[in-house]
Amino acid sequence: MKLPSQSTFALVAFAAFSYAKTIYTGDTLQGYPVIASLDINDVPVNQISRFWLSPASGQGGLPYFLPIFVARGSEESLETGRKFSLSASIHGDELNPVAVVQKVFARLNETVASGDFNGTVIGLPTQNPNGNLMNQRYFYTSSSNGFLTDLNRNFPGMSIAEAGSLPMSYTAAIWNDIWGNTSNVDIAVDLHTLSTGSIGPLWVYADYALEGVQRIAELAQPDMIKIDPGQSGTIETSFVERGIPAITLEIGPANNWNGTLISRAVDFVFRLMDDLQMTSGETPTPDLSNTYIATNFSDVMVSHSGWVELDVTTMYDVTEGQVVGRVYNSWGDVLETLTSAVNGRVLTALVDPAVEAESQEQSRR
């Protein structure tokens, strides 16, 4: 009997680990199957499928569930098309992104069913239903007296078996069981808004050091692009560090649906899919005539707690030394005058007038 060569063993081992089927738990929720992990290779072709995945359970063993869209093109599109992740609401007060994902998949229905869709899109309309329920940016764990964790500083996560915390195991489940540790994704857009209490435009974080990122950012045609080295633990940077082009798209303020910004974000997603030849539109030429390109942030800090009144708002141009606002005490006396330290353009501004000493006048990511 002839034994396989060493290289044959290596090939067999690689094949065993390179293909993993979608695992169904046998449960359903609201009529859709619950899965333990996703593999886009065996998702039905030429249709949009809906799944649930439970990334973790909270106190008392009650599971969290994440809704997942998968728009799958033809069988051959796994080879000819791209694998695009569109994720939203990793922070619970970020609601514009929820509508963007919903509207993208509603518009994709006819295209996918026609057999003209080339590729796969994974859509996560909300990644933090815990935060949505509590109207809270962060993820709440109730052990001891309770803790709040920023999930978007905990990717790609770590399982409980690897000594990870509950929030880390939660993000690990998204990373591994939905995105397949990048095997299901080769390009990504993570959708956000500002935190509660601030306003801002449509803008992008983009790490131009990775090839392909600049093109995605420009196709968004945002009001501002922040060329940025990234933030460790975020979805965007976790993909970029592994060679997957990705951006963070910020879609205005938290806790409301802004129809204009939502529509602009949806249009961007379809421009991107045209550019990737996933859909049949012409290759777009980005219009950056109204886009401000930034490389640095400058924050206006307050040294007194009180009530802030601003003279400027988002997208205003300011000059170094210009007065941009004042902080008052409860009697209406001026405690301090706020000035800009640089020449630039206002990206975000507070609409919540209550401020604390040393806080940022602007709030981001």
Automatic annotation (TrEMBL):
<feature type="domain" description="Succinylglutamate desuccinylase/Aspartoacylase catalytic">
    <location>
        <begin position="81"/>
        <end position="274"/>
    </location>
</feature>
<dbReference type="GO" id="GO:0046872">
    <property type="term" value="F:metal ion binding"/>
</dbReference>
<keyword id="KW-0378">Hydrolase</keyword>
<keyword id="KW-0862">Zinc</keyword>
<keyword id="KW-0479">Metal-binding</keyword>
<dbReference type="InterPro" id="IPR053138">
    <property type="entry name" value="N-alpha-Ac-DABA_deacetylase"/>
</dbReference>
<protein>
    <recommendedName>
        <fullName>Succinylglutamate desuccinylase/Aspartoacylase catalytic domain-containing protein</fullName>
    </recommendedName>
</protein>
<dbReference type="InterPro" id="IPR055438">
    <property type="entry name" value="AstE_AspA_cat"/>
</dbReference>
<dbReference type="Pfam" id="PF24827">
    <property type="entry name" value="AstE_AspA_cat"/>
</dbReference>
<dbReference type="GO" id="GO:0016788">
    <property type="term" value="F:hydrolase activity, acting on ester bonds"/>
</dbReference>
